[in-house]
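yo

u said u wanted the structure for the complex thing, so here. seqs first:
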Amino acid sequence: MTIGKSLPRYEGLGKVTGQAKFPADYYMPGMLYGKTLRTPLASAKILRLDTSKAESLRGVAKVVTAQDIPGENGHGVIFPDAPILVEDRVRSINDAIALVAAESEEIAEEALSLIKVEYEELPAVYDPREAMKEDSPLVWDKGNILYHLPIRKGDVEKGFREADVIVENKYSTQMVDHAFLQPEAALSYIDETGNLVLRVATQYVHWDRTEIARALNININQVRVVCATVGGAFGGREDMTLQLHCSLLTWLTKRPVKMVYSREESFKAHSKRHPIYMKYKTGCTKEGKLIALEAEFIGDAGAYSSWSPNILRKSAVHATGPYYVPNVKVDAYAVHTNNPFTGAMRGFGAAQPPIAYEAQMDLLAKELGLHPFTIRWRNAFEEGSETATGQILETSVGLKETLLATAKAYGWDVEKLY
Amino acid sequence: MIGTKSFEAIVNGEQVKLNIPQNLRLIDVLRNYLGLTGTKEGCGEGECGACTVLVDGEPYNSCLLFALQVQNKNILTIEGLASYNNLHPLQESFLEHGAVQCGYCTPGMLLVAKALLDKNPNPTREEIKVAISGNLCRCTGYSKIVDAISAVAEKGVKR
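structre next:
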């Protein structure tokens, strides 16, 4: 009935009338306001944490530190290596140290300023290429290399020997924030059955629920996560930010707690797109047929794993772009640094490699005196092509059709460009 | 402690009288005192336009105004634009043209569009783009938003 028809947006009416409820739009009688103390250091040891002044401030209901977490102090979409609250070792700027719940936002702010933290600064590393070296400061004792994926196809050395033109370059991409328009917010409370309810904008309701239960040391069925209207996410709401903090404050006070991040705290709290350092060596024949490709990706995972292994895997799988190459050697690494952690963002690792492989295609074309269209046309994936990882593309390969449509839109005489 | 002061204004056609802290922003009065949560905070520093409301018909970032700066003014928020059962033509057009995605910029976008059409019922696409230039849509649905506003302009609807 509905296939092929344009339907009105399901929740559109609420959105155009201002009635749609984003998490900050929920209020409850008697609710407390929660705030987070974050560290300004990237690598340090906490020597002393004194919350006594904050606790005695009038209007403060609760101050929470790592010791107060009833269950496990860690979360993460793959490995639970991100601390809910730092116990002793700061690994990244903006790590959360303590939480405050108070009768007003102003009191909560003031309480944060009364918490005293004494640190011993430790050596830090901010470049994943440096972090891979033997003598680099260690973000984690087990070593900084979180993930390595090698891809080998054919004989890349032989391929380069047979190549007429070889182009070799380095490329890098920068850290990017999703900057979804709705900063993180949540409201949590205990319902009439004694269960915890959390209203939040999230991309991962069931995992939030699992991790909250683990942190509070309660059963999963005692936690209800209700997804409010989500004001943009783009991957940035896959990892938890305030979900655990808000839940902890409610669980420990048994009162409704609301947390709303400012834009600045939003930038501090959630993941970023991976900066990736890419080395490319691409060889082709004088006819413009790709014959060998060697690529190395070093992705900055920041201090915590998040989705880094999956993202660098995706980068590696996309290393050749949509082009057939018979001989391929790819090495992708995700490496810990003391930078803010990186995670999912639109493309999930597939957005960075095109910067490199498409530039390589243009440079090869230039060397050979070929039109940029021609070199792409001659190497483009089509039905039946085999990728570098051995996948046979059986159906729906629209690249050549797209290339043609694009060339025509530019007014290029494609008959002369094949 | 900052003292309170009496605040009076007409909000969505209704006379409002409140005692509020003197340093309260307009957006806080709307959201926290009047329950008008359709006005959104995106950046808190006048960059994103999500908190746009109309003050005497002109669009303003309500995060950059103290409430006391709009004493006795006429304020329109998204809740005052129309009701569920009786949408403004701009609201209908936004729905029809797919100009609503996550929805967080939508109230502000609708209000700047209304301010534009009230003054200039037949704007060009360029004039529409200039009018919404202070409002960010991170879903980047700008062309559909411009389409939606244009469609209303072409019908010459004024309300």
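The two ends of chain A are 43 Å apart (CA to CA). Chain A has a mean pLDDT of 97.
cya
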